[in-house]
Hints:
The complex is a heterodimer. By secondary structure, chain A is mainly α. Chain A contains 4 helices and 2 strands.
Amino acid sequence: MNEDHNKIIISPAFKKLVKTRWTISILLTLVILLVYFGFIGTIAFNKELLATKIQKNVTLGIPIGIGIIIFSWILTGLYVWWANNKYDHKVKDIKSQLSK
Amino acid sequence: MIFLVNFGQIDPLAICTFLLFVSATLFITYWAAKKTKTTSEFYAAGRNISGFQNGLALAGDYMSAASFLGIAGMVSLYGYDGLIYSIGFLVGWPLIMFLIAEPLRNLGKYTFADVVAFRLQQRPIRIAAAVGSLMTILFYLIAQMVGAGSLFQKLFGLPYELSIVIVGIIMTCYVVFGGMLATTWVQIIKAVLLLGGATVIVIMTLSHFSYNPLELFNQAAEKYSDKVLAPGLAPALKNPLDTLSLGIALILGTAGLPHILMRFYTVPDARQARKSVFVATGFIGYFYILTFIIGFGAMVLVGQSEIIATDKGGNMAALQLAEMTGGTGFMGFIAAVAFATILAVVAGLTLSGASSLSHDLYVSVIKKGVSDEAGEVKVAKRATIALGILSVVLGFIFKGQNVAFMVGLAFAIAASANFPPLILSILWKNFTTKGATASIITGTTLSILLIIISPTIWVDILKNENAIFGLKNPTLISLPSSFAAGIIVSLFTKEQEARDKFEKEKIRTYLGVGSE
């Protein structure tokens, strides 16, 4: 049993799986942090930009703010889609070696 | 002035809604009690909750009365700035998804300390993590209890102490008898009620603006000034560094809230864990968009002077709008939903605090890691009762105090004391026991010390002239310090065993092999 585990841990397929998982996760994390701190930074240092009128009484800040909420949700959906369709398949492949 | 007249009276529909909620949830508790015998049933509902159900329950745990009434109130008084808080609260969720949810589910059993302690020495980590968890939970709990007391005093004319005792007794019943299963269903019912109620308020509000939100913004700008449509009115966000510090606390604090993290153990596997984050993020996001419209609706239809006259912080704005658009009966219904919301949130907090006391402190520290099922459940139940009593007592002690900062403090501790050791233990091979302990202690003590000498307490509560520390929220300093302490101490204290286990645990972290 433990022998099996060690074999998997040092196998290139498993190493690649772990690496891909974190590449995707860190990438998505950076995207959301960039968007969020971009927004907070704009509020902190350049409020006027968000006060720009895009219609009579609609500021740029409103669609951007609501947009960030929707975008966050879409990003989590994207991750779930990737994990369900790509990651889980590879996990299944690697796990099948265990039961042999 | 019609809205003011009816505040402070007992409304029959409100009482009915509330009694219906309480009896339904107590019935569920009775049903759940039969299925709550083992530790896995008590702490984690037997891991039988589906991803969708857990998503709703997570949303229920997260949408507190503070975020419903508080954010709607803030929007009604300061316009756009309320949205900045909502966005911060929401953006924590994708981070939980990308960084925490799956490793947490695969490595842990009942508390997030399970994950941190997985390859490190149990005792020191458990003690430190329990301190971080309990501090987060207690401050959060105080804010909720005091909120409950003053809210129902204002709404129904119910004495402050009586409301708190009622909340304390009902929530203790949920947790002691029904454990996580009952708590989960309380959260789900409350989430549906709150989302439904808020949706109805929004529809009725927009009916005054020919169902066009742009018309609502137009009238807000005309009635007040177009400044309400842009950031910059709220006094808390005047200083750029304050905004930044609060922003960090909100997004990383979410990923360190013990009662949220605990919910991931109620689903069967990592796949359901990620589904629950997706569902939760969707509902919470939708809810924040609703509160934004509710806030503007109250600003225009109720009017700022009327809102301030009822509550200086604007906390009654959503209820005043409900009365304005749907009559006293509807306001009573929404008030009952707010009460249900507080009940559900304190139940979740108490369960999480009790699991920290029993699973982390009692079993790992006093019993040296040897747990007998029945004994541990018994201790967890006693811990629940103790926490129930404590929360009522704290509610009495802090009566009339300004406790709004405590939610911010809870998020600051969660971000600075819980998040860093959790993420470092998942990602960093060379993380050590001493490093983790240092990180938790640094995060907790710095958050508390800095907030005491900050304008929030030093000036606003202790009435000193000038604050020693300039920021209202300590996270900008306490979070990096906690990371630094964790990393530097780890570099000086090599722990070969922990490094070896890091490789071995990978099979569990990434494949879920051997996870419970």
